[in-house]
Amino acid sequence: MIALRGLHKAFGGRPVLAGVDLEVSRGEVLFVIGTSGVGKSVTIKHLVGLLRVDAGEIWLDGARIDALPERAYAAIRRRVAMVFQSSTLFDSMTIAENVALPLRKHGRLRMAEALADARRRLVEVGLGEFADRWPAELSDGMRKRAAIARALTLDPEVVLFDEPTTGLDPINARRVDRLIRALADERGVTAIVVSHDLASIFSTADRIAFLYQGGVRMCGTPAEVQASADPVVQQFITGRSSGPMETPGF
Amino acid sequence: MALVPRRSLTSLGARTLDLVDAVTDLVRVAAGTVSGAVFTYWRGTRPKGEIARQMHAIGNRSLLFVMVTLGFVGMVMVYQTCLLTTQVVDGRGQVGAQFARLLVLDVGPSLTAMMLATRVGAGIAAEIGSMKVTEQIDALRMSAVTPVDYLIVPRFFACVLMTVVLSIFGMAASWAAGGLTGYYSFQINPRTFFDLSMVAPAHVVLGMTKAVAYGAAIPIVAGWCGLRARGSSEGVGAATTAAVIGSSFAVIVLDFIISAIGLIFWGAGL
Questions:
Q1: Fewer CB atoms inside 10 A, N or C side of chain B?
Q2: A with B: how many residue pairs have Cβ under 8 Å apart?
Q3: Which residues 6+ apart lie within 8 Å of A177 measured at CB?
Q4: Residue of B6, B48, B56, B142 to mutate when probing chain A, most A C-beta within 10 A
Q5: Residue A90 domain-assigned?
Q6: What is the pTM of this model?
Q7: What is the pLDDT of residue B45?
Q8: A249 domain-assigned
Q9: CATH number at residue A133
């Protein structure tokens, strides 16, 4: 369904991605893991045109999408939603208005219809009674759930999750894991999840892609990753501070 | 040794590309703002009452600041001019009329805009820059909302209108303060000072054109700086500084351009 081929991206002359190759099938839950700053979020932002490739190709359902103009990405963003690392709710709108925004713009619904739909989505994530509150009045976990509701309003085929469990308590983190798994199993939604949360990774992933030094070091099932003899992969999944990935002076 | 010039060339190339990218972005933001304001305003999605809210933030909250600053500038200008005119021949009778002409033609709108460039430009860049580094701009794009249309267009309307209004209030404050200075320090009769005979319609047209142009430039430049913010709070700080410098610079450049156009149209009669 999604293919990244030879993806290159540099910021200010510093290369971040140096040839990322990755394929994701429909209905699959792929976790992208790796150390901070390795380019996990950068990789997924390319899929919806929030960042543009320096070199390489991105394919979605057999169509190449990396060179599309900004306007043409509207159709892609209707099919591929994203949950950002911070909740990214707009302070000037209530929770329901935040969730209704993609419905109004992508779905072209009237305000009243969009708000009614948004309230239904908020009930699904347990925030029905908070629909008319402002983002600042909610906890981090609630804001995250509202952001997930907003991403799901258009029933996307693919959802990109950027560290969805960061900042959540363990109970809410596992709820998010269950939600991601249910989206894939019950609705056939493809999920690409950037995460550091090992419990989440190994309980939820169909496959795991490990990014290291600008490329995909390893891609396999959770069992294959756990059984990997690669010392870099082993250091990451066991969380050892010393090893081949040691940061000088830290 | 051979590496040094090569590295320098690479660095120069990277800077040139960055500059081209920045200028392209500025043109895109300016074109998007103007087209959003003129052609597609009613189709846009913005929070209810956003223009009124921005008018309050830009206008009402800057009113005292602008009036006090221009009042002091008026006092200093009139005091210094009176000192100079009394040294050779007594030309105090002309100070008020000439000061009114200068205020309407240039000093009023330009100083008001410089004040707004610092207060409003910094505010716009900080707000949009914070949204950029916290990925809210990306979230807008994911919701099929154009950030320029959503964030800059309402500020554009509000800033154009309020720069004109604040310029008028600023000029009034400056003129009144100048009149008081003339009366108490140099015994200029208020009826002599508050003389509008030197102010021609062309001066008003040119002064108000400047106010409109400044009001348009400040949110565009500041919004552009905010949208280019990178990283975290440090990036927002850099964007805010760049917005103040860029907006002030835009005011000075526009002042020069519009004055030059005025001279071409009206010549020495200006």
A1: N
A2: 51
A3: A165, A200, A203, A204
A4: B142
A5: yes
A6: 0.87
A7: 66
A8: no
A9: 3.40.50.300
* Nearest Cβ partner for A84 among B14, B50, B135: B135
Chain B residues with CB under 8 Å of A88 CB are: 134-136, 138-139
CB nearest A13 (choices: B14, B138, B141): B14
Given CB atoms, is B8 within the 8 Å cutoff of chain A?
A: no
Is B24 in the A-facing interface, judged by CB distances under 8 Å?
A: no
Cβ count within 10 A of residue B37: 18
Kindly report the nearest CA distance between residue A86 and chain B, in angstroms: 7
- Integer Cα distance of B227 and A70 in angstroms: 16
What integer pLDDT is reported at residue B269 of this predicted model? 66
What residue ranges do the domains of chain B occupy?
46-269
Identify the pLDDT of residue A213.
93
Whether A247 is in a domain gets the answer no
Contact between B199 and B104 (Cβ < 8 Å)? yes
Burial of A1 per CB tally in 10 Å (0-12, 13-18, 19+): middle
Closest CA to B119 of B60, B72, B43, B187: B60
> Inter-axis angle of helices A111-124 and A140-152, to 10 degrees?
120
DSSP A163: S
Rounded Cα gap, residues A60 and A78, in angstroms: 13
Averaged pLDDT for residues A101-119: 90
pLDDT per residue as tens digits for the range B221-240: 999 999 999 988 899 999 99
Q: In terms of residue numbers, what domain contains A120? A: 2-238
Which secondary structure element, helix H or strand E, spans residue A80, and what is its range?
Answer: strand A80-83
* Interface test mutation site (partner B, options A44, A87, A90, max chain B beta carbons within 10 A): A90
Q: Is residue A246 part of a domain?
A: no
Cα–Cα distance between B154 and B171 in angstroms, integer?
A: 26
**pLDDT number for residue A226:** 94
Q: In one letter, which amino acid is B217?
A: A
Residues 6+ apart with CB under 8 A from A247: none
Q: Do A77 and B144 touch (CB under 8 A)?
A: yes
User: Residue A12: which pLDDT band, with cuts at 50, 70 and 90?
Assistant: confident
Contact B159, B169 (CB under 8 A): no
Cα–Cα distance for residue pair A183/A140, rounded to 1 Å: 22
Antiparallel, parallel or unpaired: β A190-194 and A207-212: unpaired
| Distance separating alpha carbons of residues A87 and B18, to the nearest angstrom | 30
Segment B181-223, tens digit of pLDDT: 999 999 999 999 999 999 999 999 999 999 999 999 999 999 9
Cα(A26)–Cα(A21) distance, integer angstroms: 17
pLDDT at A20 over 90: yes
Structural domain tally of chain A? 1
For chain B, the average pLDDT equals 92
